[in-house]
Amino acid sequence: MESVASRLESILSELPSGVRLAAVSKFHPVDRLMEAYRAGQRIFAENRPQELAAKVPQMPSDTEWHFIGHLQTNKLKLVLPYVSLVQSVDSLHLLQAIEAWGAANGRTVRVLLEQHIASEETKQGFSGPEILDILRDAASYPHIRFRGLMGMASLTDDVEQIEEEFSWIAGLKAAVNENLPELKDFTELSIGMSHDWRIALGFGATIVRIGTAIFGPREY
Q1: CB contact at 8 A, 82 and 52
Q2: To 5 degrees, how large is the angle CA 31–CA 32–CA 35?
Q3: CA-CA distance, 31 to 38, in Å (whole number)?
Q4: How is the chain split into domains, by residue range?
Q5: Phi and psi, residue 76, nearest 5°
Q6: Cβ atoms within 10 A of the Cβ of 66, count?
Q7: Distance in angstroms (rounded) separating the CA atoms of residues 172 and 169
Q8: Given this model, what pLDDT does residue 220 score?
Q9: What is the distance between the alpha carbons of residues 86 and 146, in angstroms, rounded to a whole number?
Q10: Distance, CA of 32 to CA of 15 (rounded, Å)
Q11: I want to staple 125 with a disulfide (CB 3.0 to 4.6 A). Which of 81, 87, 116, 136 is the partner?
């Protein structure tokens, strides 16, 4: 059976310069994360606030944490003090709560806006027009730095459908960069997971979120 280090090395060898790997470590114990850390991985992504808060003190201090799950506003204190990026801002209510937290704590929070691109209705996220409306009003969020977009394609083997969905979010990012040049930090496109990250590279991904292909099946 391949080790975490060998899987990680194989994936990193295929990533172009400028594309970062967020190792999706949810449901995996810290000893598995440390295998990846010892192999050079520094960015880890979690989707449950309690699990993130529990793992942070057990990992080295130079670990960079991203949050990628649906975040309830009553769980902000378990996430925002520790993460360098919230990838999954999926509602205006959450965005406003993050701004309020930043104001109260003297912090600027880096976020990605999650666009709903998948066919599944269960997926979270904004529509393209909603994202454009938020970004046109970016000055109303002085404690938030809008860094880009995040999206999850449909869980399907239909490559054409995945490509179409990735093209939507890539097109939206291009439109933002063209029409809102004042958002100079709006550079990130987080698309691609274990089953479709190679496709995502063709649509300008700057972050890929890979878990199973690194750590294997979830342990709990």
Answers
A1: yes
A2: 90
A3: 10
A4: 4-215
A5: -60, -40
A6: 26
A7: 5
A8: 47
A9: 10
A10: 22
A11: 116
pLDDT at 119: 80
The pLDDT value given to residue 124: 80
What is 121-189 written as a DSSP string? TTS--B-HHHHHHHHHTGGG-TTEEEEEEEE---SSS-HHHHHHHHHHHHHHHHHHHHH-TT-TT--EE
- At residue 122, the pLDDT reads 60
- Partners of 66 in the beta sheet? 45, 85
Residue stretches of the chain with pLDDT short of 50: 220
> Do 145 and 111 touch, CB atoms closer than 8 A?
yes
Distant-in-sequence, close-in-space partners of 61: CB < 8 Å, separation ≥ 6: none
Instruction: Note the residue count of the chain.
Output: 220
How are beta strands 43-46 and 64-67 bridged, if at all?
parallel
Phi, psi of 80 (to 5 degrees): -60, -30
Element (H, E) at 22: strand 20-24
Tell me if 167 sits within 8 A of 151, measured CB to CB: no
